[in-house]
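Materials and Methods. Structural model of UDP-N-acetylmuramoylalanine--D-glutamate ligase. The 445-residue sequence of UDP-N-acetylmuramoylalanine--D-glutamate ligase from Labilibaculum antarcticum was retrieved and submitted for structure prediction as follows.
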Amino acid sequence: MTKRIVILGAGESGVGAAVLAKSKGFDVFVSDFGEISPKYRMALNKYQLAFEEKQHTESLIFLADEVVKSPGIPDTSPLIVKLIERNIPVVSEIEFAGRFSNAKMICITGSNGKTTTTLLLYHMLKKAGLHVGLAGNVGDSLAWQVAEKDYTHYVVELSSFQLDGMYDFRANIAILLNITPDHLDRYDYKMENYINSKFRILQNMRSEDSFVFCTDDEIIKKELMNCDTLAQLLPFSVREEKEMCGWIENELLKIQYNENLFSMDKKDLSLPGIHNVYNSLASGIAGSVLQIRKEVIRESLSDFQGVDHRLEKVVRVRGIQFINDSKATNINSTWYALESMDEPVVWIVGGVDKGNDYGVLADLVKEKVKGIVCLGIDNSKIHAAFDGKVDVIVDAESMEEAVKQAYRIANKEEIVLLSPACASFDLFQNYEDRGNQFKEEVRNL
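The predicted structure was written out as tokens:
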């Protein structure tokens, strides 16, 4: 009997999983509750894959031997609950793809900095001449690449949602940057559930594998005490030097791996801000484990261009610098953004709240922010946190209105910062759409 694989969701990861399943001779059916985009419908037809859209036909789905689901579908959705009741295994695309690849997997997770670190490492590995693919939350579907490319290495950005559907997948190098409250709406508002999800990156690691982690993060430090892993532990810190694999000493970034010491001046890093020192340390350690030459590591850390929608300088208009940080979808990301500002800030904030505690931003807002523009359908929590704490706080119902309001409040030599600290789904398709609209409205001023 041919094994039947049903794929839920026909986006990048779903169609990629379908292509891989078909290439392995499985009976494949793809089901998407929404409308499939033209790009992916074309791909499904090209590979002669059976699919449906705008519905989930349960009689066809329940024939599955195994289901691969999109990370966007929560485990609590009625269809997933029914599948689990029927003992039909439900896995993520990454889990499925990992079965068919012998490539080295360098996997990155954390609440913040994942994309920057992933792209920085990919940049480094390409520069080193490795045959490397970029996958997970960024780049192309891992499954699609496993089906059609013959990469020796993959750099994979993993969200907690992807990790939740992973069981036998093994990372050769796992990087855990930080853990701060995020997506708590998907974890019953219980922080321990979210922490457990992030630590799944360690499952199945062996003694020849490496775990790179930030020891300045109290949650990671505490959790590691109760964590049993065979992987080699490679901690990094900007506060401590003793027993670290990566640290800062006299403004120098240092990495000691086995007998090799790597060192470079912190001011030569291409990306500004303390959070990027962490991202650079993590990337440099992974590069050292992979035995990439020191010159290549140094060059990569000094010429990397950064990530779209992450502290991206747009333009100056009449001396006011506009900065797009739309990728900041949680409080911690916004904390780092505000921390790295040197001029007075007009801050555009708001969207779909994921259980935010704005109190942690209070001191930074007092020190750096002169005005707030609330951009969201429900801004009550932002007002409750900051009314009376800044000179001006106003509401906007569109990006055009938000940019114009911010422009009116800001003066020459000041900054307008879009750093929403929230998800984008109330007014925008996603954070990219939000960032692109911001850039467009700024250029229209």
